[in-house]
Amino acid sequence: MKKYIIFMFILLLVISYWVFNPYYPVDEEETIILEEIDSTVTVSFSSVGDIMCHSTQYNYAWVSKDSFDFKPVFSEIGNYLRSKDILFGNLETVLAGNTKNYSGYPFFNTPNELAEALKFAGFDFLFTANNHANDKGQIGVDRTIDVLKNVNIVPIGTKKLSSSEPTYNFFVRKGLRFGVLAYTYGTNYNENSLHPQEYVNYIDPIKIENDINSLKNKKADLIIVYFHFGKEYLKEPTKQQIDIVDQTVGFGADVILASHPHVIQRFEKFKTVNANLDSGFITYSLGNFVSNQRWRYSDGGLIFNFDITKNIFTDSVYISKVSYLPIWVYKGKINGNKEYVILPSEDFKNPSKYNFTNQADIDSMKKSYFDTIELFTKGNELPKIDRMN
Prior knowledge:
The structure is a single chain. The protein has 8 helices and 17 strands. It has helices at residues 2-20, 55-60, 78-82, 113-121, 137-150, 205-217, 239-251, 359-377; strands at residues 40-51, 62-64, 67-68, 86-91, 125-127, 154-156, 170-173, 176-184, 222-228, 255-259, 264-271, 279-286, 288-290, 300-311, 317-334, 337-344, 384-385.
């Protein structure tokens, strides 16, 4: 009996040691590591203005019979664009195919390779509701949608009447639920297609309100609206622009992007109404991203950036960063080839950076840089100028 008691006493001491000693060795394979979970996620958005393709542009991109290469256009800016989670732009042309003959202004039709180059540059969404959407009629709209989808770019603002395919406007990235809508003031007259409102989204307050409410019902964290509106080459928004923006804010939009004037118009913040963000903003015109419009104010534009942060535990969302990068479009020869290349206009500060620019180019780049700052910010502290380096 005494031996049994001694044995139990020793056993109890051993067990107590292993239980209460915090420093006993543990097999690494049995160790469970608890990682701290980040309570927030941030999605980086960027948008550019009008992506145009005049006849000179596709002639410069010509390689051989019905073969084109637009990728050099984005060679200097591509890494910057591809660094964003979501990239938007306005496709101010259609991709109706060579059977409709390629053409520039006033009725655009561009080779498919432009879509391939835009995907290469990082574009995820292209707004297709604009005044040139109906340049080749419903056939042009349908084929543009098909070409974009084939390169994994989502068209926003037009639909196919001849198909039962759904039109998507609700998306999720990193857990952020966001909706995207696009509308145009109208389309250019086409005698062969007189009812474009059936497949192109026109600006209609009733439709806009219904579309926003639909996204709210889907529990969208963020609602982005694009407008193609305003008066061409006017550097201030018109009363009509301001009125439709005010209405759309009242419907619950968080972010409003826009283009059409082919020049930059101002950035403004607004107090949201029945929306998830406490405050939102409007960019009345992002200007041209690429075109053959070589005159001052239209030969450049900007890349607009905004980060949205979401708390995954509370579902609250807020704008965590707003910035922009002024850009300018070079047109000329590079290594003997005629090229268009989008450049950050801040590079006027380093005149020797490119071996293909001359003093006239540097001067135009400098003017574009300061014009962009003046027109877009109007002296506001936000947004800040971004830099590529």
